[in-house]
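Quick one, probably user error.
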């Protein structure tokens, strides 16, 4: 009767059995749980003492005596008859390129022989897609029926499906729920983000240049969606912005966009 024990080294659960030939107890890992004998010697003894039956070879018709093959009846008397009954490995033309080749064995065809002369020909013959021009670079590429995109690579797809063509495009504007500020689409080569706050966009249009990160913009009336130029004030430094926010400096009452550069 098989029992289970656990080793200390790798904590692998082993199966413990009794050999039916010498009655010796032995253990095997789970991958060898089907082992019946303790070693090769006992396995050879069991093979010589196994019951033998008469079988008829399916190739030559010869009657031969042998043990069963893992419980199944033997079909061939020798390796030669097995190969002769198998695939037809004579030379034949490749259905894709037309070259004459000697096929190898295959379990995926009806005649048990390779149909094509190479992996390349097999791939070309089994192509069921079509060629299209890339929407971004115009380069022709092969598309299978399962591929619905129209770009030849991830880089082209990432570059083409952006802005209004992006699946998540919402008109280029959105309002944050936390602060109520409006954001608009505005891509810059030195920034990762594709949106900028609308009040900063108004300031940049008024002063004629891009704002730096440390240039903060305040709403004079504290209304986050009132982005009129006369309601915006630019802080020239992080320190000035902090002092205005904590009350060390007076809150601005007039826009400085006309004088700010």
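Nope, works fine. Designed sequence:
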């Amino acid at each position: 009767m098989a029992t289970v024990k656990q080793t200390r080294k790798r904590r692998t659960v082993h199966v413990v059995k009794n050999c039916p030939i010498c009655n010796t107890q032995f253990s095997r890992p789970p991958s060898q749980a089907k082992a019946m004998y303790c070693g090769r010697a006992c396995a050879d003894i069991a093979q010589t003492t196994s019951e033998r039956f008469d079988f008829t070879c399916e190739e030559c018709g010869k009657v031969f005596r042998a043990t069963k093959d893992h419980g199944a009846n033997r079909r061939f008397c020798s390796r030669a008859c097995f190969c002769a009954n198998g695939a037809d490995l004579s030379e034949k033309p490749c259905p894709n390129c037309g070259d004459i080749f000697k096929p190898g064995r295959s379990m995926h065809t009806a005649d048990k022989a390779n149909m094509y002369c190479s992996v390349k020909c097999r791939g070309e013959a089994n192509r069921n897609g079509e060629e299209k021009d890339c929407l971004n670079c115009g380069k022709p590429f092969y598309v299978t029926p399962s591929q619905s995109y129209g770009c030849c690579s991830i880089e082209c797809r990432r570059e083409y499906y952006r802005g209004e063509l992006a699946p998540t495009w919402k008109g280029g504007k959105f309002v944050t729920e936390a602060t109520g500020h409006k954001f608009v689409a505005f891509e810059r080569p030195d920034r990762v983000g594709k949106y900028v706050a609308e009040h900063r966009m108004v300031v940049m249009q008024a002063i004629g240049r891009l704002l730096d990160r440390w240039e903060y913009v305040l709403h004079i009336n504290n209304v986050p969606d009132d982005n009129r130029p006369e309601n915006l004030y630019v802080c020239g430094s992080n320190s000035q912005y902090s002092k205005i926010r904590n009350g060390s400096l007076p809150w601005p009452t007039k826009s400085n966009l006309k004088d700010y550069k």
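DSSP finds six helices and 14 strands in the chain.
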